Design the sequence.
């Protein structure tokens, strides 16, 4: 089932710093680039690491553990050691509220 959730206030998002949110079983990292907000899977596709804790450069976030870079728009890994993408989520900003659309996992972890 597709669900839309309010996940943050726009003011909570700092330029170039991620914010981790947990929504309907999805662990999501939010990033703000100017007036735009992007949401990708927070869990690195290589090993256990939180991408919300990574540094942002040129529209990509660098995994804090081994340094793979993930494009914030596509979720694609742009450098090794990660080779698989992370999920991306639709984000809408309405006034001061940030909404993310997710597919809910029926009662379990996604
Ligand atoms: S855990 Fe992210 S690159 Fe290894």
Sequence:
């Amino acid at each position: 089932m597709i669900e839309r959730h309010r996940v943050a206030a726009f003011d909570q998002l700092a330029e170039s710093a991620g914010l981790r949110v947990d929504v309907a079983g999805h662990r999501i990292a939010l990033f703000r680039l100017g007036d735009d907000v992007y949401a990708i899977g927070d869990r690195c596709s290589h090993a256990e690491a939180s991408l919300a804790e990574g540094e942002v450069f040129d529209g990509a976030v660098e995994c804090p553990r081994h340094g793979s870079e993930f494009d914030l728009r596509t979720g694609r890994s742009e450098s090794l050691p990660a080779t698989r993408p992370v999920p991306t989520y639709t984000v809408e900003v309405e006034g001061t509220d940030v909404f993310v659309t997710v597919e809910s996992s029926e009662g379990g972890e996604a």
Remarks:
- The radius of gyration is 13 Å.
- Strands lie at 2-9, 19-23, 26-33, 36-41, 55-57, 60-62, 69-71, 88-94, 97-103.
- Residues 44, 46-47, 49, 63, 65-66, 68, 81-82 surround FE2/S2 (inorganic) cluster (CB under 6 Å).
- The chain has a mean pLDDT of 94.
